[in-house]
Design goal:
By secondary structure, the chain is an alpha/beta fold. A nine-stranded mixed beta sheet has the order 4-3-5-2-1-6-8-9-7, sandwiched between helices. Helix 1 packs across helix 2 and helix 4 runs parallel beside helix 6. The chain is globular and about 45 Å long.
Amino acid sequence: MAQPKYKRILLKLSGEALMGDGAYGIDRVTIDQMVGEVAEVVRLGVQVAVVIGGGNIFRGVAPGAAGMDRATADYMGMLATVMNALALQDAMRRIGLVSRVQSALNIEQVAEPYIRGKALRYLEEGKVVIFGAGTGNPFFTTDTAAALRGMEMGVDIVVKATKVDGIYTDDPKKNPAATRYHRLTFDEAIGQNLKVMDATAFALCREQNLPICVLSIFKAGALQRFVMGEDEGTVVTVS
């Protein structure tokens, strides 16, 4: 039987993805679908860590935060990611997937504090580790948190799960002739001004030689096929 190509991955999920077709909040059907995709990978023996955003509830740079102190707005956004992390954990529990939530902000009544050694042990035990509250610092995005936690956990690749099944030459919704890149180098992505992740996260991954994959979490089986080495999404590497 074929073995997965990747032993340990970090999955970056956007908060907006949890909304489904709604304008805000969490759509139960959507979150169940996403968790089902994660479960398929875990059952293959792949160790999975997750960083979740909070844009479906609150973002420090969103119009709703206009006029607010930026640090305060960012802390509110971090709390939104903890809410999403708890929702993910509950959805995983319902299908028998064991997970742990670790928060970069101390909220010990609802989540463990982030402790690297415990997170690594959980992964080795086959548990999904969900990281909430970003990096715990304002002015940093959850993309940066994904890069940081990915390096700390020693993952093989950061998988940015979006609504689009890869990086394209143009916006595929506006240009039907746009084609998907199968592989790119960091230099090519920078040269073509492709918005893979925010600049800080992208620079961290490039510096530490940590590959990034962009794929669709809504394409059934895509995540599973990717970890098995099939052609899904777009992989960005140093060379």
